[in-house]
Amino acid sequence: MTKRILIVTEYFYPEEFKINEIADSWLKKGYIIDVLTQQPTYPLGKIFSGYSNKWFVKESYFGINIYRVKAVTGYRESLFRKLLKYFTFMILGSVISLKIGRKYDYIFGFDVGPLTGMVPAVLLKKFYNKKVTLWVQDVWPDSVYAYGFKKNKVLEFLLNWFVRFVYKNTSNIAVSGKGFIDRIRPYFDADKKIAYLPNWADELNKDLTDFRFSREQKIHFTFAGNIGTVQNLDKVIKAFAALPRQYQEKAQLNLVGDGSYVPILRDWVAENKLENVIFWGRQPRDEMYRYFNASDFLIVSLINKPIFSLTVPAKVQTYIAAKKPILAVISGDAADLVKDNKLGFAVEPDDINAITTAFKQCIDADKQLLAQFSQNCEQLTDITFNKERIINSLLNLLTT
């Protein structure tokens, strides 16, 4: 008898997340795959064209049944609406999961955002004794405090209770960062397994026309992805602006992406007349290799908060797959990954002078060193961040 898997995730196709590839892979292996999610809104906070923000709708996507619930929009501009979005999925998703959940053999939770999104999954273990596996991309309660919520006794008590409730009703957990294990273990039963299964690189379409950031021959630094407050790009830009003139003339900083912090950064760049810091806007995901390939260094950056020292942003694996040297303006696991595997340079995110020095190191690096960085990236992609191996390991964790 064919086994049925329910995937619980706040994000699914046409939104671009790795859960899409997981669902497709497991479907091809012979499982019946259903997805419980919400109407697509990420990253712009608006309902995608062709979709209607109804309270509930069932649709099909290449043999996958998708159950969608209403999504709150406009959350990019409002913290209240962002919180409302999370709680709306938790409540509506829980109602639907309890209604349809009995027929599934396994429940897989893709925990890419707030832990509230996993409640519809863990309720199926609590009420129907289903096997539930979570793939954790973010750690609570640490993330709540990292995003600005002040820690007090009441909030701490409520968050700790909630986190324990979710993890108590989970069969096992996969984590995308090794540092997550120690943070999760106190909330999780000692006899249950926590497996390290990192993100893999995005598929890179290399059959694209070449792209050039500038007509002049320069060292191009590129940041790609969401541009918000936690990406620390204000310090990155200020450090770049502090380069001596002879270095400024050799380099260009490219920001490819969109986000809530772009207007503030644009204004600062304009006020300081930085002609070699360029905003390219959000670009199609399947065209990103053009921008990676045109770069000399790819930048990953996060503010200096304890939770982010445990995080290896998913873009790092994609940078590695692009075989480009990395400038890591970050602390913790991501910095260690770059340093230990000799993939580029790493620097603490709070020290603007140190970031400026790192830019100089990159600009001064010889071709032999850059070639070694690229070769190390290729080896790491083939061994540690192998997509097929990771997806198969997630399936094994879920079903055995």
Explained architecture:
The protein has 2 domains: 4-200 and 386-399, Glycogen Phosphorylase B (Rossmann fold, 3-Layer(aba) Sandwich), CATH 3.40.50; 219-383, Glycogen Phosphorylase B (Rossmann fold, 3-Layer(aba) Sandwich), CATH 3.40.50.2000. 39% of the residues lie in helices and 18% in strands. It has helices at 19-28, 79-100, 119-128, 142-146, 153-168, 180-184, 233-241, 245-248, 262-271, 288-293, 314-321, 333-340, 352-364, 367-383, 387-399; strands spanning 4-9, 32-38, 56-61, 64-69, 106-111, 131-136, 172-175, 194-196, 219-224, 251-256, 277-281, 297-301, 326-329, 344-347. The longest helix has 22 residues, at 79-100. The strands form 2 sheets. It has an 8-stranded mixed β-sheet with strand order 3-4-2-1-5-6-7-8, sandwiched between helices. It has 400 residues and is an alpha/beta fold. The protein has 15 helices and 14 strands.
Summarize the structure.
This protein has about 400 residues and is α/β, with parallel strands linked by helices. It has helices at about 20-30, 80-100, 120-130, 140-145, 155-170, 180-185, 235-240, 245-250, 260-270, 290-295, 315-320, 335-340, 350-365, 365-385, 385-400; strands at about 5-10, 30-40, 55-60, 65-70, 105-110, 130-135, 170-175, 195, 220-225, 250-255, 275-280, 295-300, 325-330, 345.
Give the SSE layout.
Layout: E1 4-9, H1 19-28, E2 32-38, E3 56-61, E4 64-69, H2 79-100, E5 106-111, H3 119-128, E6 131-136, H4 142-146, H5 153-168, E7 172-175, H6 180-184, E8 194-196, E9 219-224, H7 233-241, H8 245-248, E10 251-256, H9 262-271, E11 277-281, H10 288-293, E12 297-301, H11 314-321, E13 326-329, H12 333-340, E14 344-347, H13 352-364, H14 367-383, H15 387-399
Parallel strand pairs: 1-2, 1-5, 2-4, 5-6, 6-7, 7-8, 9-10, 9-12, 10-11, 12-13, 13-14
Antiparallel strand pairs: 3-4
Helix pairs in contact: 2-3, 7-13
